[in-house]
Amino acid sequence: MSFDVVVVGAGPVGLCFVRSLAGSGLRIALVERQDEASLRAPLDDGREIAITHHSRRLLIELGLWSRLSEEELSALRDAKVLNGDDHDGLFFSHEEAGKSLMGWLLPNHAIRRAAYAAAAELPEVRIVTGVSVTTVRNGSDGADVVLDNGEILRAQLVVAADSRFSSLRREAGIAAGMHDFGKVMLVCKMRHERVHDQTAWEWFAFGQTLALLPLHDAHTSSVVVTLPPQQMQALLALDDAALGVEMAARFQQRMGAMNVTGPRCAYPLVGVYARHFVADRFAVIGDAAVGMHPVTAHGFNFGLLGQETLSRKLRAARAASEPIWNPQLLQSYEREHRRATRPLYLATQLLAKLYTDDRRPARALRKLALDGSACLGPFKRMVMSGLTGDRDGSQSPMTRIRSLLQRMRPA
Ligand SMILES: Cc1cc2nc3c(=O)[nH]c(=O)nc-3n(C[C@H](O)[C@H](O)[C@H](O)COP(=O)(O)OP(=O)(O)OC[C@H]3O[C@@H](n4cnc5c(N)ncnc54)[C@H](O)[C@@H]3O)c2cc1C
Predict the structure, then answer these.
(1) Which pLDDT score, from 0 to 100, does residue 384 have?
(2) Is the ipTM of this complex over 0.85?
(3) Is residue 310 situated within a structural domain?
(4) Ligand 1 center from residue 300 Cα (angstroms)
(5) For ligand 1, atom 37, which residue shows the shortest CA distance?
(6) Which single residue of 327, 338, 352, 374 could bond 293 by disulfide (Cβ 3.0 to 4.6 Å)?
(7) Is 11 a domain residue?
């Protein structure tokens, strides 16, 4: 069968991309190795995705936001960053930013469910599930996408949204810079004795990084802990009751008693940045292009931004009856998305290393950065006006906090 665009990977970004092309007149196929039931009702994978104001606008336009229940939309009002044994840390208030909220937290499985429902209702999209793409063969008048059931889909353009470990990216000859942080991140929903006040925590404690992401219920948060793999194995071996006690101790009882209420999901931390985002009749989007370290909560926000950039260019080409695989068009997507993501990707890599390094110089630098920020009231207020993501919608609140800390770094 023949299509204008074949998208590989029905993760949140591949699904949003397909939805973005709705009504463009392009014939689209979306291929996903998971079965249809897993897309229609995805399992809770523990991730709570911090969403900027700009991303929220995109999710509304794509028709996803209205498909989320009230309990799935958690308001992120304020944030605090703690270092070492600090008690109060640096507080970022929504009032200083002149906003009612800094952002929102949405469960990843709810985003995927809503995105699948929005894509599945499009008549111009054929969704092929339970099938993997094994290879892509380029010819002079199109690309053949070969599926593991033997079927071949002919495409004018292939778009890979097949994760940060994208096999199609490699097959297209695109190299990627990868950094394995040698750490594992555990996410788990927990109920705690004290209320969270809709305040997110980032706590760069010694030997571990902790985060608390406030959910809809005032006593429930997504708790995040980052540790070296062996220590993580020991933590994962605990039963639910013991894990609750252990996490309350790691949080120094600041939230009171804690109890596990959701699945525990562990993610190895690897940052990936593709050397190119395009090749002949080929483009990568989502994590396949830019796979961020989750500490700055930015992977999906960048994925949304990139798919929007590419779909806008494809729509314009289609409206002008120009080929959607035009190399200049694809390169302009690469340039625009690289400009939007590269500086923050590099800053995130740097800061993730600094904030998980417990050697003396790194500790001192972190303390300096936080103390300096706390003292500079006018400067802090100025930066706060940008924290909500309206001035530059591509940045999440947490990324802006990191940017602030980076600016405070002594010369
Ligand atoms: C713990 C954690 C917390 C995070 N928090 C945030 C946050 O707060 N804010 C934020 O913006 N981002 C966050 N992220 C990042 C975000 O989850 C990712 O950026 C996003 O899920 C990437 O989506 P994707 O569609 O590009 O890729 P994926 O979700 O990896 O989807 C890829 C899809 O491709 C399919 N596939 C792969 N190969 C093939 C093939 N050959 N054939 C067919 N199908 C294939 C896979 O089955 C999969 O469904 C977080 C990530 C983690 C791990």
Answers:
(1) 44
(2) yes
(3) yes
(4) 8
(5) 162
(6) 352
(7) yes
